[in-house]
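B., you asked whether I could sanity-check this one before it goes into the benchmark set. Here's the sequence:
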Amino acid sequence: MGTILGGFIVISSFLVASALMFNSFLVGSLAQSQSMKDMTRTNSSREGSGLNITGAAVYTAGGSDVWVHVDHTGSQTVADFSEMDVIIQYTDTSDNLILNHLGYNAGGLDDNEWTVGVTGVQPDSFNPRMWDSDEELTVDLRVSPAIKAGTTAWVVVATPWGVNDQSSITNP
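And here's what the prediction gave me:
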């Protein structure tokens, strides 16, 4: 009887361990499969995206307001500007190197934020209030502290798919 009970415990332990290992394998395979699907979707979206910064400048020498014109050269529409990234690197008036990821503000402009410029998307002919292929977006941004006059700054604009372009900013 003791031998049968011992054998039953060993076999039961083996079956429970096998079931746990098989379940872990299935969960891991499912997570990996979902990750591959997400990566494929992102790469497909990224393939049809492109940006080209056509101009950027500080409005007033030694000021904190900047404009950037970005041409959409891809095929993916940007519907939600809050999903875009704007990053700026510059020297402030105290000679400190500043690297700043600016937040989006649809309602206007405040320190260390960016917004769509007054002219918005031009020409906005296909999808109103969305940024489509062959349209140009004007981005206004404000940094604090101000950009030192006579220095060069760098701005990066990126879409939700990770496609980006960078440009130097002239600061007279």
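One thing to flag: The chain has a mean pLDDT of 89. Otherwise nothing jumped out at me.
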